[in-house]
Specification:
The chain is of the alpha/beta class and 537 residues long. Among the domains are: 54 residues, Oligo-1,6-glucosidase, Domain 2 (Oligo-1,6-glucosidase, domain 2); 60 residues, Immunoglobulin-like, CATH 2.60.40.1180. Helix content is 26%, strand content 14%. It contains 15 helices and 20 strands. An eight-stranded parallel sheet has the order 11-10-9-5-2-1-13-12, covered by helices on one side. Helix 5 runs parallel beside helix 7. The longest helix is centred in the middle third of the chain and has 18 residues. The chain is globular, with a radius of gyration of 23 Å. The protein binds alpha-D-glucopyranose.
Length: 537
């Protein structure tokens, strides 16, 4: 495919949750050949790259973030040759492929962990993980760390020692002080680069290195809470300085190939993030700020301005994310009263507080924001269809480990992972010719690709038009200047386009200029209604 360097700096990257995208063989789970059969949708959408959630051999205890073999494809998803065919077909269509690499932990089914737990304490194979004797008489975990999905971060082995898992017990943490672990990942990275993968999304990129003494931790166990602290914290397992050596090692490998990139999922303090983006470390890092930003012009303005300034200061490119496989989908977030704890709301409600129409309007307006900003924009599958969160999945189908580990107090992330509706009817709306692994609600058909494809007012049409216009009108100029159109209005200028978003409760006068694109489905007169964006030339 045509080579132009630094493609990641401006691209639209589409996130594919393989298990929920398209199923080719009728087992109700998405797979690589299903994805291959739907590449036309992505090409028509105009995306530059896809990022695939983990596709490696896995018991799927955490949606594939529990990897049993980093060089094999999970049989539910296909084979290595299916993956190679996918990469080639994407490249033929001008679409680059980013794979997800999970270095912080393996699956407990990984051969290394099986070796570790069947070897005696002190054996070299145990040193690949973080395994320690307990406290006191050995029956207390080595320290007070809590796992991200709930419960202690340590599980006791039959021989009496404990192993560390910052996530699920089926995801033991690797010991990154062990050179064999480092060398293994070097090799895994080369394995995928040699197969033509264009980039890596590094999972939990702030987690690998632990404090050598494994001290107790004061509150602050959650990575995202680090972002809310005034100063960076010396945390025993998040964002430790030793991570940068690993970053450099990986970067050197990528630099030995042409045009490859890596993007960090790093939940660190904003002051620490630039360190991950130094010239010999990551090319890019996710910026999750918009996920946490309420529908408010002043808040959007400050998040956007800060991210653009921070990126410019270090010569990096910004990234924009409204939704992904870990958070409540944004049409639902934007339909809830400001201040709602969206994760808690899934279970606890009140569910009649949801204004789905407002959420949908705002999601349309938000698309014209993220697709007009400098840097790269990540689009989570189904976002282009306006899929909201399926918050009312039957409890007995929930698959996210969060549900069990929280003792049924937190529902987890299944509601944003419901399979894509391709057709208005038929079994699982064209996702599979059988029922899908998570059930789709009846109303999914109206949001299907078929139902939206030829409707000029659909979300899908809006995404297509915006991506095409972005490539045509905005690509060459990465600078952005904020404009002041009064309270409740977000406005900025990029290249020859002025973007105006009315995030207030009342209509505002329409600014001068020719409307290139509008998130409204009705014709606009001399007013810009609430929850509406326009691109003006
Ligand atoms: C990341 C992934 C999430 C996964 C976790 C553990 O945050 O995005 O889905 O559960 O890492 O690997």
């Amino acid at each position: 495919m045509e080579s132009h360097t630094e493609w990641w700096r401006t691209g639209v990257v589409y996130q594919v949750y393989v298990r929920s995208f398209a199923d080719s063989n009728g087992d109700g789970q998405g797979d690589i050949n299903g994805l291959r059969s739907r590449l036309g949708h992505l090409e028509a959408l105009g995306v530059d790259a896809i990022w695939l959630n983990p596709w490696y051999k896995s018991p799927l205890a955490d949606g594939g973030y529990d990897v049993a073999d980093y060089r094999e494809i999970e049989p539910v998803y296909g084979t290595l040759s299916d993956a190679e065919a996918l990469i080639a077909e994407c490249h033929d269509r001008g679409i680059r492929v980013i794979a997800d690499l999970v270095p912080n932990h393996t699956s407990s089914q990984h051969v290394w962990f099986q070796e570790a737990i069947t070897s005696p304490p002190g054996a070299p194979s145990r040193d690949r993980y973080v395994i320690r004797p307990g406290r006191g008489d050995g029956s207390e975990p080595p320290n007070n760390w809590i796992a991200m999905f709930g419960g202690p971060a340590w599980t006791r082995l039959d021989d009496g020692e404990w192993y560390l898992h910052l996530f699920d017990p089926s995801q033991p943490d690797l010991n990154w002080d062990n050179e064999e672990v480092r060398a293994e990942f070097d090799d895994v990275i080369r394995f995928w680069m040699d197969r033509g993968i264009d980039g890596l999304r590094i999972d939990v990129a702030h987690g690998m290195v632990k404090h050598p003494e494994l001290p107790d931790v004061d509150p602050l166990p959650l990575p995202w809470s680090l972002q809310g602290t005034p100063e960076p914290v010396d945390h025993p397992f998040w964002g430790r300085a030793g991570i940068h050596d690993i970053n450099r090692r990986w970067r050197a490998i990528l630099d030995s190939y042409d045009d490859r990139m890596m993007v960090a999922e790093a939940w660190v303090h904003p002051q620490q993030l630039p360190l991950y983006l130094r010239a010999d470390e990551y090319h890019q890092s996710f910026n999750f700020d918009l996920i946490e930003t309420p529908w408010d012009a002043a808040e959007f303005r400050s998040v956007i301005a800060e991210a653009c300034e921070a990126a410019a200061a270090i010569g990096a490119s910004s990234t924009w994310v409204l939704s992904n496989h870990d958070v409540v989908r944004h049409p639902t977030r934007y339909g809830l009263p400001a201040g709602t704890d969206t994760r808690g709301w899934l279970l606890d409600g009140p569910h009649d507080a949801l204004d789905a129409d407002a959420g949908h309007r705002r999601a349309r307006a938000a698309a014209l924001i993220t697709l007009s900003l400098p840097g790269s924009t990540y689009v989570y599958q189904g976002e282009e269809l306006g899929l909201p969160e399926v918050w009312d999945l039957p409890l007995d189908v929930l698959d996210d480990p969060t549900w069990e580990k929280s003792q049924h107090t937190v529902k987890g992330r299944d509601g944003c992972r419901v399979p894509i509706p391709w057709t208005a009817d038929g079994p699982s709306h064209g996702f599979s010719h059988e029922a899908s692994w998570l059930p789709q609600p009846e109303w999914f058909g109206a949001l299907s690709v078929d139902a939206q494809r030829d409707d000029p007012d659909s979300m899908l049409s809006l995404y297509r038009q915006a991506i095409a216009a972005r490539n045509h009108l905005l690509a060459d100029d990465q600078a952005l200047a904020m404009l002041d159109f009064g309270p409740g209005v977000l406005a900025y200028e990029r290249a020859d386009i002025t973007v105006v978003v009315n995030m207030g409760a009342r209509a505002v006068p329409m600014p001068p200029g020719e409307v290139v694109l509008s998130s409204a489905t009705e014709m606009l007169g001399d007013e810009l209604p609430p929850d509406t964006s326009v691109w003006l030339a």
